[in-house]
Design goal:
This protein is of the alpha+beta class. It folds into two domains: about 80 residues, 3-Layer(aba) Sandwich (Glutaredoxin); about 140 residues, Glutathione S-transferase Yfyf (Class Pi), Chain A, domain 2 (Up-down Bundle). Helix content is about 50%, strand content about 10%. The chain has a four-stranded mixed beta sheet with strand order 2-1-3-4, with helices on one face. The protein is globular, with a radius of gyration of 18 Å.
Length: about 240
C-alpha cells in the first residue's frame, strides 16, 4: 500500500492527463480523478497550476490526510516522480537506453502537434496542409523501431514511460482516421504495430474506448472545426 493518496486533476479528454493515468495504472497505484471544466477552471486549481493547465497530481499523506497536499504539474515531471518512487520501474536499467528513452519522450510534443493538427484545422486547406505534414511525425519513430527490430513496445518486451507518453496521441490518430480516413500510419508498419499493441493495453484506457471516442468527437463538434462536418450530431462533452 502506498503511503500517499493521489488525486489526478483532469479535463476528461486531455492526452497529457491520460499519460499520467497510464503510468498510475501500470504501477497499480490507486488514484482518484477530479475532472474540472476547461471553460470554467476553479480558483483552487488556478492557484496550484502555474500554467493553468492539467494534469496536476495532488499528493496527500495517507496518515494525516488533512495536511496540506503537495501539487505536481507537467506530465513528464509527474511520470518521472512516480517512476522514481513506485515499483515496478518503467525506465530502462541501462543508462544509455534510459537517455534514449528520455530523448524520445522529449519528441512527444513535436509528434503530438503534427499528428493531431488536423483536429484543429479551421478549413479544408488547413486540414490538407496538416495532413501532408503528418508523415514527418511518424518517420523518425519508424526508423527507431526498425533499429530496435523487436516489439511489441518501445523497449521491446518491457513497457516503458515512452509507451505511456505516446499512447494517448496514437489513440487520437486512430480517432481522427475513423472520422475521415488519413491512411498515414499504414505507411509505417512498425509504428502501426506498436500503436495497436498500445491500444490493446488496458492501462491506455481511462474510459470504455467507444465512450471516450464519442467524447472526443463531441469536443470536435463543439469547437466547430472543419473536420466536425463529418461527425454525426452528438451532445457536446466536457474536455
Amino acid at each position: 500500500m502506498t503511503k500517499y493518496k493521489y488525486v489526478l486533476v483532469s479535463f476528461k479528454t486531455c492526452p497529457w492527463v491520460q499519460r499520467v493515468a497510464i503510468v498510475l495504472r501500470e504501477k497499480n497505484v490507486p488514484f482518484e480523478f477530479r475532472h474540472i471544466d476547461p471553460d470554467n477552471r476553479p480558483d483552487w486549481f488556478l492557484a496550484i497550476s502555474p500554467h493553468k493547465k492539467v494534469p496536476v497530481l495532488r499528493i496527500y499523506p495517507q496518515s494525516i490526510f488533512l495536511e496540506q497536499p503537495t501539487s505536481l504539474f507537467e506530465s513528464n515531471a509527474i511520470a518521472e516522480y512516480l517512476d522514481e518512487t513506485v515499483e515496478p520501474r518503467l525506465s530502462h536499467d541501462d543508462p544509455v537506453w534510459r537517455a534514449v528513452n528520455r530523448a524520445w519522450t522529449d519528441y512527444v510534443p513535436t509528434f503530438a502537434s503534427l499528428v493531431t493538427a488536423t483536429a484543429y484545422a479551421a478549413d479544408e486547406a488547413a486540414y490538407k496542409a496538416a495532413a501532408e505534414k503528418m508523415p514527418a511525425a511518424f518517420a523518425p519513430l519508424e526508423h527507431q523501431l526498425v533499429l530496435i527490430n523487436q516489439g511489441p513496445f518501445f523497449n521491446r518486451e518491457k513497457y516503458s514511460l515512452v509507451d505511456a507518453a505516446y499512447a494517448p496521441f496514437l489513440q487520437r490518430y486512430f480517432f481522427l482516421d475513423r472520422i475521415k480516413p488519413l491512411g498515414v500510419i499504414d505507411q509505417f508498419p512498425w509504428v502501426k504495430a506498436w500503436a495497436q499493441a498500445l491500444m490493446e493495453r488496458p492501462s491506455t484506457h481511462s474510459f470504455p474506448e467507444a465512450e471516450f471516442e464519442a467524447m472526443y468527437r463531441a469536443n470536435l463538434k463543439r469547437r466547430k472545426v472543419w473536420l466536425s462536418q463529418f461527425i454525426p450530431d452528438v451532445a457536446a462533452a466536457a474536455e
